[in-house]
Amino acid sequence: MKIEFVNSINKINELTWQSLADSSSPFINYQFFKALEHSQSVCSKTGWQPHHLVCSNANNVNAILPMYLKEHSWGEYVFDWAWADAYQKHNEPYYPKLVATIPFTPITTTKLMASDIALSQVFSVLTEHCLAQNINSWHILYTQESQQQPLRLNNVFQRNTVQFHWFNRQYHDFNEFLSTFTARKRKNVKKERLSISQQNIKTRRILGKDISPEELSFFYITYQLTYLKRGHSPHLTIDFFTNILKSLPNNILLVIASIDDCDIACAWFFFDEHQLYGRYWGCTKTYNNLHFEVCYYQGIEFCIEHQLDLFNPGAQGEHKIQRGFEPVLTHSYHWIKHLGFRPAIQQFCQQEQQKMQHYLKHCQQFLPFKAETS
């Protein structure tokens, strides 16, 4: 098997990539990664240097693992800042590191696109590459693949985080979904949604193919504001959104809120034939419960209307629980070159896994559902 790491998606044939992608998810679509690179949202200047793994046999490419060389830990959502700080205190370099993930997107997907290769089979390939190229670690984030024995054999550590997802149990409408809540929780959601109309706020849902240049411009203004309020620069350029609207118009939903025909907030979603993914939110002014309406309730209604199975609204957020989003575990895998740090990091990962299991069970106690449907 021939192993190659390429520094641009342009060096991978689109038809080959798409033939190995095993789902309709926009986050493993060639055009999504192309938009990231061509818009300069990911590049060496932003600390996301493409470094995609391509495996070939005698006849053709049979596996692709999108990866990035990184000099920081921003935009990953499986946080390793504590590890980097520990290295710094001991005057050891933590970066560069090699990361397999969807940039700025904490979404569980198949990371290794392959016809006949399992994820665990590339562990040793990545390790050998890091040792040869003086890369200090590799990380595969938010993966669907479950590994057990290969972890111990390859000195790979597993980490878990908890996200909150909404599951469509064949609801006919939003009220049927709410009927599964206890009376008190149901009353709270109705009160939140009623407050939207009481503030004279209206919402509209626009599919990607119908988003106007003015609506895209408004979205990007609010997207920038969300980051600027936290003292950060936006990860994605306007060119990314312009490109992705052209290449994947049937996978995009934009929800916009307005008062008296003046737009005040919006949320950007991706979707495929099975799932809705909440991604970016922004507003020009704060209104009561507007975030819940635009980012959650509108998304739930969209899933019900389009018979989508699952709604992943993004990372973190315990406030999602009382609105019907259930805790689920995510998985990631990590290899560390430095022998001295391995025992401490292994212990950290083991303790974190136990804490995440406990946290998941703890969150389940606060779900809003009636006892018979919880």
Q: H/E element string?
A: EHHEEEEHEEHEHEHHEHHEEEHEEH
Strand order of the biggest β-sheet: 2-5-6-8-15-9-14-13-12-11-10
Strand-residue proportion: 15-25%
* pLDDT < 50 stretches: none
Q: Count the strands?
A: 15
Q: What fraction, in percent, of the residue positions are helical?
A: 25-40%
CATH topology of the largest domain: Aminopeptidase
In total, how many domains does the architecture comprise?
Answer: 2
Question: Roughly how many Å apart are the termini?
Answer: 48 Å
- The CATH superfamily label of the largest domain reads Gcn5-related N-acetyltransferase (GNAT)
Mean pLDDT: 95
Alpha-carbon Rg, integer? 22 Å
Structural class: alpha+beta
**Largest sheet entry:** 11 strands, mixed
| Highest-level CATH class of the largest domain | Alpha Beta
How is this structure best summarized?
By secondary structure, the chain is an alpha+beta fold. The chain is 34% helix and 24% strand.
Could you characterize the architecture of this molecule?
The structure is a single chain. The chain has 374 residues and is α+β, with helices and mostly antiparallel strands. The chain folds into two domains: 2-162 and 328-364, Aminopeptidase, CATH 3.40.630.30; 169-308, 3-Layer(aba) Sandwich (Aminopeptidase), CATH 3.40.630.30. Helix content is 34%, strand content 24%. The protein has eleven helices and 15 strands. The protein has helices spanning 14-20, 30-38, 81-89, 123-133, 149-153, 174-178, 183-198, 213-228, 238-247, 290-306, 342-364; strands spanning 2-6, 48-50, 52-56, 61-65, 68-70, 97-100, 113-114, 137-140, 157-167, 201-207, 252-259, 262-271, 275-283, 310-312, 326-336. Helix 2 (30-38) runs antiparallel to helix 9. The longest helix is centred in the C-terminal third of the chain and has 23 residues, at 342-364. The radius of gyration is 22 Å and the shape is globular. The termini are far apart.
